[in-house]
User: Which sequence fits this backbone?
């Protein structure tokens, strides 16, 4: 039976970054991906332009994630900041640019270029990637993990689960990682949709479908008590309301488990509109999944399970989520590198080399 230092299950944003990081540190690693191609959801990010992060300080980003996610992600975002991410991509040959709202994109504004960078780096560092290899079973032994696919089995000392949430299941995010965790005795938080739209009274949509309103402010209330506010775009769709301001509102409402929210929309022209959403759109349409591996199960300084040593969870398989604008990709990349850094230290492989610190524009 083949043996390896590390197996990463899932070749999405966090799994790919973990694989590249493992290659940088010389860990013998195998990535297993259930779909026939890696990075399916990554290719959708930012309308296929791939909004990688937001060009703000780590302190501001932690604040924007909000509680409890921001405090949990503090070690990861401190170890690999938004500025570090931009420098890392530049050092690998893909320059980034800052667009409206401090959003950071590859200079080509092409998600496929980001995916190609990751797969090129895997080849250069001889990290193996097996596609069309859904994992059928994970068995814990006293000193390792036995991972079985349909066609082969591999034994590994360290295991990273990076299988994502359950939104957009066609991309391969079907909840496998959470099921394996539950089978191993690790607790889960219930799933809710984040960054999605709302269904509303059809009368609100009459003669307005297709309308897009820029720079709105939305107050989120429950029983007349102001809970939060969002800013951004407000769109009228045939199925309901959407846009960045609404997406961020759904994330907050799901995170706080608000059952009957009230939205007060403040438009640029001074108009004010009150909306009582009926429900969020289905979770399969959401950009992120709220819920998953409970934060209390994970050491935020290493991404290692408290219950099972040498088992790590990264990215959206965890109960972490952020606003629109690159926050969720930053969380995926930062948690990946934090986990791999700990594995390398435990394996006597050293640490990451400093990234060339060219001047970065800082805002926020």
Assistant:
């Amino acid at each position: 039976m083949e043996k390896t230092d590390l197996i990463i299950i899932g070749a999405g944003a966090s799994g790919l970054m973990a694989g590249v990081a493992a290659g940088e540190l010389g860990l013998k690693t195998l990535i297993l991906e259930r779909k026939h191609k890696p990075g399916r959801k990554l290719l959708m990010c930012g309308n296929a332009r791939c909004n990688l992060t937001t060009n703000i300080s780590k302190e501001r980003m932690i604040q924007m994630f909000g509680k409890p996610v921001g405090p949990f992600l503090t070690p990861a975002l401190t170890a690999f900041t938004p500025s570090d991410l931009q420098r890392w991509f530049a050092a690998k040959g893909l320059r980034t640019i800052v667009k409206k709202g401090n959003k950071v994109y590859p200079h080509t504004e092409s998600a496929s270029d980001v995916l190609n960078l990751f797969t090129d780096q895997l080849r250069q560092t001889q990290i193996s990637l097996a596609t069309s290899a859904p994992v059928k079973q994970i068995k814990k032994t006293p000193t390792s993990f036995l991972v079985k696919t349909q066609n082969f089995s591999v034994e590994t000392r360290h295991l990273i689960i990076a299988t994502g949430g359950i939104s957009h299941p066609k991309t391969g995010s079907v909840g496998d990682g959470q099921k394996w965790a539950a089978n191993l005795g690790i607790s889960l938080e219930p799933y809710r949709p984040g960054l999605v739209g709302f269904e509303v009274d059809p009368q609100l949509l009459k003669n307005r479908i297709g309308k897009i309103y820029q720079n709105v402010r939305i107050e989120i209330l429950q029983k007349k008590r102001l809970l939060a506010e969002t800013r951004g775009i407000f769109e009228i769709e045939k199925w309901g309301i959407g846009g960045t301001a609404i997406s961020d509102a759904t994330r907050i409402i799901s995170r706080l488990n608000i059952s009957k929210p009230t939205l007060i929309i403040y438009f640029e022209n001074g108009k004010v509109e009150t909306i009582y959403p009926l429900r969020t759109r289905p979770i399969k349409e959401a950009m992120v999944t709220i819920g998953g591996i409970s934060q209390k199960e994970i050491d935020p300084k290493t991404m290692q399970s408290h219950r099972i040593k040498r088992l790590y969870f990264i990215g959206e398989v965890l109960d972490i989520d952020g606003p629109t604008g690159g926050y969720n990709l930053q969380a995926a990349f930062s948690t990946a590198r934090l986990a791999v850094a700990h594995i390398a230290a435990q394996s006597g492989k050293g640490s990451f080399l400093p990234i060339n610190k060219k001047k970065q524009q800082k805002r926020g």
Summary: The CA atoms of residues 197 and 242 lie 5 Å apart. The helical segments are 13-24, 58-65, 69-79, 82-91, 111-124, 176-183, 244-255, 327-346. The mean pLDDT is 95.
